[in-house]
Design a protein that fits this description.
By secondary structure, the protein is α+β, with helices and mostly antiparallel strands. The chain is 25% helix and 13% strand. The radius of gyration is 16 Å and the shape is globular.
């Protein structure tokens, strides 16, 4: 999401870059239940994981800024030793397999 503290020009730039990336068709990698410790018998997390491959390096032009739900944000390199929340690791593994990548 575009953080409301960004200037109008920066918001427009982010929206344009986002539009360029998402105009192509993404590939759905997973749809369904998420193994989350907050799940209960009466309420649970579900998600859709979609891979949009940034072949034009558009995301390198994004200036990241934490919103109200995050203390800090940054781009990071990941490898197979990374610790992730809930079953998010399986989502990364699906993206790695889909893109015939190695991590």
């Amino acid at each position: 999401a575009v953080v409301s503290t960004q200037s109008t020009g920066e918001q427009e730039r982010v929206m344009k870059l986002t539009g360029e990336l998402f105009k192509g068709a993404g590939t759905t990698l997973y749809r369904g239940y998420v193994d989350d410790p907050r799940n209960t018998d009466n309420a649970w997390m579900e998600t859709v994981v979609v891979n949009f491959h940034d072949t034009q390096d558009l995301f390198s032009k994004f200036k990241l800024k934490a919103g109200d739900d995050a203390g800090a944000v940054s781009w990071i390199s990941i490898d197979s030793s990374i610790k992730l929340y809930a079953n998010h690791r399986s989502f990364i593994e699906a993206a790695v397999a889909h893109n015939k990548a190695h991590w």
